[in-house]
Write a structure and sequence with these properties.
Number of strands: 10
Number of domains: 1
Radius of gyration: 14 Å
Shape: globular
Number of helices: 5
Structural class: alpha+beta
CATH superfamily: YbaK/aminoacyl-tRNA synthetase-associated domain
Oligomer: single chain
Order of helices and strands: HEHEEEHEHEEEHEE
CATH topology: YbaK protein
Length: 153
Amino acid sequence: MEITSYLDEKKVHYQVSSHRPVFTSQKMAAEEHVPGMNVAKPVVVQADGRYYMCVVPACCKVDLELLRSQLGAGDVVLVSEKEMERLFPDCEIGAQPPFGDLFGMQTLVDKTLHEDNFLVFQGGRHDRAIKISRQDYERIAQPRVLSFSYHLH
């Protein structure tokens, strides 16, 4: 499903903007002139055979060991690019929106992202950004909030 159709269906106010294609969340933050802490970067992991969409600020990385302990999982690994193609057929690789339920997986949000008033994320393509309020994001994504990221230096 196209992300804007999904947001319309959920009656969410959002803004769409276009920018030159970028392939990292930090570069998208620069293109959109927003702090990296406001850019929602989805990272997909597999924990004990189950997929999770982990959402962290653009300037952070997922601490797999910390996530493993919080999930009570035996093993947590990043999903391969090949698997990403299969999981997100309607999105450019790495440009999936941060809504796990759209793709049959639970959404986990790092608590640092939980503190911002608005979020910006890629809308399925590397040249498009979508901005929504954090409250609307939480209402429709219904994420589980954990602490599993560390800041890049």
